[in-house]
Amino acid sequence: MLKSAEYNEKTISQAIKTKWAGKTVYFAEKVDSTNSWIKRLSKEGAEHGTLAVAEFQSAGRGRFDRKWEAPEGSSVMMTILLRPEFEPQYASMLTLVMGLAVAQAVDELGFKVSIKWPNDVVLSRKKICGILTEMGTNGTKIGYVLIGVGINVNLWEFPEEMQDKATSLAMESGQEYDRNQIIGLVMKHFEEDYERFIQTCDFENLLEEYHRILANLNQPVRVLNGADSFEGVSRGIDTKGELLVEKADGTVTKISAGEVSVRGLYSYV
Q1: Which Gene3D superfamilies does this entry report, sorted A to Z (predicted)?
Q2: Cα Rg for the chain, rounded, in angstroms?
Q3: Within 13 Å of residue 265, how many CA atoms lie on the same side as its CB?
Q4: Which of 53, 90, 103, 158 could crosslink 162 through cysteines, CB 3.0-4.6 Å?
Q5: pLDDT the model gives residue 265
Q6: Whole-model pTM?
Q7: Taking the domain 9-212, which CATH number applies?
Q8: 3-state SS of the chain: helix, strand, coil percent to 5?
Q9: How far are the Cα atoms of 103, 118, 147 from residue 99, in angstroms, in the given order?
């Protein structure tokens, strides 16, 4: 898949072959962040499935407010707007749904990909994708859910402090990729996974596929939670997307949030 010379609203729209996910595309050369941009669009009435894509973000961020910045032409930076009809307590699981979709897209390109729970997409034990989900409510109902995605596509180097933590599709394969097609693949898989998710509002229909590429599965892990940190063995996730960690005494603890270190994989801590 060769790098495309053009990357804009038209070329991205042409690459998306879905019913609703990304059928409306907004593109900008530069924004503060695609999450902030699509939040503004949502207030103007943007519909379910609207996708905002930028070439450069001046204020991109990831989980735990970590800064996310990439040179122009190197990455996919996008946010999809969702207007779910289910209750707000289920929205957090959509982060895992998107992580799965990105991993499936990368898998389709022929890479040996895995997921570090909850949503880090991993190649060669290093991260290639960041995901940030935000929700707004109207009373007791969801007003919008925004899922921001950053994928390292055509990056050839990283700052020294990130070299043991991050990689890109280009670095792993030795070739550059058409970012339009990357977006098209992610939207295809996300639409399929989202529709399976909303049938039950949990991971019942996605559990087998998620476990197939879960780096944490049956691996020693350390749950990092300040003074309450502990070690155990990951036994996968449950239908709510919680990580099941078995301690030495045989008890199983459900982890719903936080940083999990997997032996042999990068860590930010």
Answers
A1: 2.30.30.100, Bira Bifunctional Protein, Domain 2
A2: 18
A3: 25
A4: 158
A5: 63
A6: 0.92
A7: 3.30.930.10
A8: 30, 30, 40
A9: 6, 8, 10
